[in-house]
């Protein structure tokens, strides 16, 4: 590719960059990262790309979710299991609802760096750098802890590796075995009505498996585990560059070289820090460093788009990062807000349709719906989240397009960060367990409820479910 290299981004204007005092420390950290093995393989990345092509064509659905800001401390057994189980439960509900395979991508094992609206903040009268994520600086409110620390770059790699190792090990040991889905541990916080609906779905799946066994179809393969892919915002380009490798691309055919009969194995540049990376809404400038980095990697990529994106700019951006119009290579993650989606999404869909690009359309109903309570607590209303999703589904349907998936900030913990949902969490209740280090997340109960409601939109069975609840 013409003048692209893993470091060509460095000559472009950059937003949200990190200025380290310790330049030597940065070089040492990046040198170390360059020698460490990839966290994901090319085969896995290519498999995800193929699955996302199916999503773009309306044959599958993608569920992406996890923390807004992952912390190194979240790298522990209970928290990883809780998140994985929640994504599995939600995906089972969505498979049933949308009647399509569901591709699962977690915001995990690397979702550390955060874009911030202001580089500095004042806490208790002291001005200090804002918290930028665990791979950059510390959350503790002291100027010392907030100083960007290059040793965190290497620490980010090892925390990602440990998280990914446990994720892979638990999946291969049967955590997602469909033969015993009730062992997926419905949390104690689930309301009786959601538990009953979920149990009903699970028993239908069990019936189907029993039927397949009775008629002699082998169910031992393919239902005992599932894939969970990893993702994060590709914000910290020094880190991403160090883990970007020129590797044999197993899906490209060797081309005979002109000079001899020998064949050169085709290679591509892969970002090996995770399967899927996305560009945030604040770093997607056409001529900027992030777009430059993203245009050269073979991974499937996401682009966040909000109200500030014009249809013309959207097409220019797609042409830059996907000049060959590869279907499903780009996931457009729309995040307008419930009150704005109707104004912007139709224009974006129309522009994309007339450009010939076929992206995955994913709705992020979180980032356009953040608001502050009168006492200054950042929250999101469950009803706004649901409304943006429902509108996305309807607008895509009306335009002859597909809503391919949803992108959520959620946690397997029983936190109190978003208001509403069947549990009826109010603004007054937010302080009970408000533990996010960045944006408010759906808790386990709210996330599963949302999956049921979205499944209901697909099946148009909301009313039946409500009827059976009241019986
Ligand atoms: C995020 O996904 O946490 C985020 C910062 O989103 P956006 O770029 O859409 O603001
Ligand atoms: Co966020």
From TrEMBL:
Its EC number is 2.5.1.54. Keywords: Amino-acid biosynthesis, Aromatic amino acid biosynthesis, Cadmium, Cobalt, Manganese, Transferase. It comes from the Eukaryota. Binds 1 divalent cation per subunit. The enzyme is active with manganese, cobalt or cadmium ions. Pathway: Metabolic intermediate biosynthesis; chorismate biosynthesis; chorismate from D-erythrose 4-phosphate and phosphoenolpyruvate: step 1/7. The keyword Cytoplasm does not apply. It is an enzyme of class 2 (transferase). GO terms for molecular function: 3-deoxy-7-phosphoheptulonate synthase activity. Its cofactor is Mn(2+); Co(2+); Cd(2+). Phosphoenolpyruvate binds at residues 107, 304, 335. Mn(2+) binds at residues 68, 367, 409, 439. Belongs to the class-II DAHP synthase family. This is Phospho-2-dehydro-3-deoxyheptonate aldolase. The lineage of its organism: Eukaryota, Fungi, Dikarya, Ascomycota, Pezizomycotina.
């Amino acid at each position: 590719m013409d003048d692209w290299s893993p470091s060509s981004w460095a000559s472009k204007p950059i937003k949200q960059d990190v200025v380290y005092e310790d330049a030597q420390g940065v070089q040492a950290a990046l040198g170390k990262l360059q020698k460490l093995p990839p966290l994901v393989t090319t085969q896995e990345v290519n498999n995800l790309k193929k699955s996302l092509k199916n999503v773009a064509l309306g044959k599958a659905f993608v569920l992406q979710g996890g923390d807004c800001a992952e912390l190194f401390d979240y790298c522990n057994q209970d928290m990883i299991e809780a998140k994985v189980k929640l994504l599995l439960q939600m995906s089972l509900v969505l498979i049933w609802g949308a009647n399509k395979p569901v591709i699962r991508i977690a915001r995990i094992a690397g979702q550390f760096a955060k874009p911030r609206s202001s580089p500095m903040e004042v806490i208790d009268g002291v001005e200090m750098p804002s918290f930028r994520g665990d791979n950059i600086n510390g959350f503790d409110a002291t100027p010392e802890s907030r100083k960007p620390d290059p040793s965190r770059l290497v620490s980010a790699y090892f925390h990602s590796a440990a998280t990914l190792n446990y994720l892979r090990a638990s999946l291969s040991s049967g955590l997602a075995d469909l033969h015993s889905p009730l062992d997926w541990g419905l949390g104690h916080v689930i309301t009786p009505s959601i538990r009953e609906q979920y149990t009903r779905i699970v028993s239908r799946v069990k019936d189907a498996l029993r039927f397949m066994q009775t008629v002699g179809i082998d169910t031992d393969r393919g239902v005992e585990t599932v894939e969970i892919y990893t993702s994060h915002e590709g914000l910290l380009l020094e880190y991403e560059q160090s883990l970007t490798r020129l590797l044999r691309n197993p899906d490209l055919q060797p081309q005979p070289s002109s000079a001899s009969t020998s064949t050169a194995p085709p290679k591509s540049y892969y970002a090996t820090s995770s399967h899927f990376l996305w560009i945030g809404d604040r770093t997607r400038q056409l001529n900027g460093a992030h777009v430059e980095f993203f245009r050269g990697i073979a991974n499937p990529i996401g682009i966040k788009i909000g109200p500030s994106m014009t249809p013309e700019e959207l097409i220019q951006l797609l042409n830059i990062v996907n000049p060959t119009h590869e279907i499903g290579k780009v996931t457009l993650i729309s995040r307008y807000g419930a009150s704005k989606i109707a104004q912007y999404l139709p224009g974006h869909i129309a522009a994309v349709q007339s450009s010939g690009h076929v992206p995955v359309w994913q709705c992020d109903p979180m980032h356009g719906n953040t608001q502050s309570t009168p006492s200054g607590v950042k929250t999101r209303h469950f009803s706004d989240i649901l409304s943006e999703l429902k509108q996305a589904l309807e607008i895509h349907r009306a335009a002859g397009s597909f809503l391919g998936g949803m992108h959520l900030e959620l946690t397997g913990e029983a936190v109190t960060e978003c208001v509403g949902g069947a549990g009826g969490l109010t603004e007054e209740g937010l302080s009970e367990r408000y533990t996010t280090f960045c944006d408010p997340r759906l808790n386990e109960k709210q996330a599963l409820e949302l999956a049921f409601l979205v499944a209901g939109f697909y099946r148009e069975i909301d009313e039946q479910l409500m009827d059976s609840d009241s019986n």
